[in-house]
Design a protein that fits this description.
four-stranded antiparallel beta sheet, 53% strand, single chain, mainly beta
């Protein structure tokens, strides 16, 4: 059963996330804003403005202190979850940032973009530490393994790619989808990778 309906956005909502403690819900919209909602009451508690264009992806850091977002303006932005203030702007992608994720220890931010690259950033300094290339076309989704040793990405080329987080080397190319891969995830024990694509299959 639906337990709540959160209204406030003026346009399409493209990404949602929950805080690690489950107390907050985060949503990103086509007008460049993000909203934070109290999960218990459904009340909006904050509005984060900064992106120029659609916010395609949002995520919380593992400790819940930071929010990460990626958008149409080609930037990855980091926000203080308590104050709602932007603390960093990470520039590097040539085109829309379609997906963001954080490493399990919170030390790294991973992003995938329209430029076909996966980028790795140091969460503390905001410096780009790796650029992973291999996909032909946009990278629609990125994820990290539970132990942080691997990065997984899915893209327009219909492939799922696995990368060594330390070296940035591609360790596997998984084929099977006949269309773009829109979403990837890993199982809690890291033994499995799950992907969903435009071909209608998981």
């Amino acid at each position: 059963q639906q337990t709540g309906r959160l209204e406030g956005h003026a346009g399409p909502v493209y990404s949602v996330a929950t805080s690690p403690d489950g107390a907050q819900i985060l949503s990103g919209e086509s007008d460049g804003t993000m909203r934070v909602w109290d999960a218990a009451s459904g009340q909006q508690t904050a509005r984060l403005d900064g992106h120029a264009g659609w916010v395609w992806s949002v995520a919380y850091s593992p400790d819940g202190t930071q929010i990460v977002s990626g958008g149409d303006d080609g930037t990855v932005r980091v926000w203080d979850a308590a104050s709602g203030q932007q603390t960093a702007r990470l520039d590097g992608h040539a085109g829309t940032v379609l997906s963001v994720a954080t490493s399990p220890d919170g030390a790294q931010i991973v992003s995938g973009g329209e430029d076909g690259t996966v980028r790795v950033w140091d969460a503390a300094s905001g410096q780009q530490t790796a650029r992973l290339e291999g996909h032909a076309g946009s990278v629609w989704s990125v994820a990290t393994s539970p132990d942080g040793a691997q990065i997984v990405s899915g893209g327009d080329d219909g492939t799922v790619r696995v990368w060594d987080a330390a070296s940035g080397q591609q360790t596997a190319r998984l084929e099977g989808h006949g269309e773009p891969v829109r979403s990837v995830a890993t199982s809690p024990d890291g033994a499995q990778i799950v992907s969903g694509g435009e071909d209608g299959t998981v």
